[in-house]
Amino acid sequence: MTNDLVSPGLRVTFFATALVGNMTMTGQWSRDASTSPFIDLVPIEQATGARKEFYDEMERLRGSGRVSNLFKAYAAFPALAKANFQRLMVLLSQGNLSNKFKEALMTALAEANKCDYCVSFHATALRTAGASDEEVVAALEFDPDRIGLSGKEKALFNYALKANGDPHSIVSADIEELRRKGASDCDLIETLETVNTGNSFNLINGALNVGPDDFLSYMKGRGELWKKSA
Question: CATH homologous superfamily of domain 98-230?
Answer without folding.
Answer: AhpD-like (1.20.1290.10)
